[in-house]
Amino acid sequence: MRVVIARCAARYTGRLSAHLPLATRAIMVKADGSVLLHSDGGSYKPLNWMSPPCTMRVVAVSEEAAARGVAEVWVVQHDKTDDRLEIELHDVLADTEHELGVDPGLIKDGVEAHLQELLAEQIALLGDGHTLVRREYMTAIGPVDILARDRSGAAVAVEIKRRGEIDGVEQLTRYLELLNRDPLLAPVTGVFAAQEIKPQARVLAEDRGIRCLVLDYESMRGNEDLSSRLF
């Protein structure tokens, strides 16, 4: 991962247009190609970002930009859409790179893990004709909560959260990009399942062709098959 602390401005164009005026920010360039701009606030959410697959390049600084104090320009272009993020760096205060290695993935809490178990047992909640392939289907960046197949036999990847937010959609998007490279699985569609799905997360998921499913935990517990349990 590369982390750059810089006075910078940014403009995003494509499905929407957004502008970040000049300020000091942290820019993260991850090994998967994603680029994120963070401020010293706003919790974990970036101010703007580009998700993979995308390509970042450094372009020549125009005379007009140089006159405004721009020292370097990064252009991050999405490989499949017209989405484009341009970052103008004025002053670089720090620039470091770190090899983080393979992350073991998020350890689910009790409720989230139980939701996964219940949905695997009640896989028909995904739709008539769905069948379970396996839970915790491993990818190079961590396990997908559930891999299933729909009534036509097509693969379906399911990410499960208690509260569905944008970061969960991003996580599922990364899994889908990897799974769709496997000719034995592709095409793989996604389902984002949670007890509650935030409106922004739903909009992002549906924009990416990911289906949203709200889970009723109490109802699922009532339908739980207890015959195979010892306690």
From TrEMBL:
State where the protein is found.
Answer: Cytoplasm
Keyword annotations from UniProtKB, A to Z: Cytoplasm, DNA-binding, Endonuclease, Hydrolase, Nuclease
Pfam families recorded: NucS_C (PF01939), NucS_N (PF21003)
Q: Which residues form the Endonuclease NucS N-terminal PH-like domain?
A: 2-104
Q: Has the keyword Nuclease been applied to this entry? A: yes
Task: Please tell me which top-level EC class this enzyme sits in.
Answer: hydrolase
* Residue stretches making up the Endonuclease NucS C-terminal domain: 111-225
Single GO term (MF)? endonuclease activity
Q: What EC number(s) would the UniProt record show?
A: 3.1.-.-
Function, as annotated, reads: Cleaves both 3' and 5' ssDNA extremities of branched DNA structures.
Q: Which family does it belong to?
A: Belongs to the NucS endonuclease family.
Q: What is this protein called?
A: Endonuclease NucS
Instruction: Say which species the protein is native to.
Output: Demequina sediminis
Q: Which gene encodes it?
A: nucS
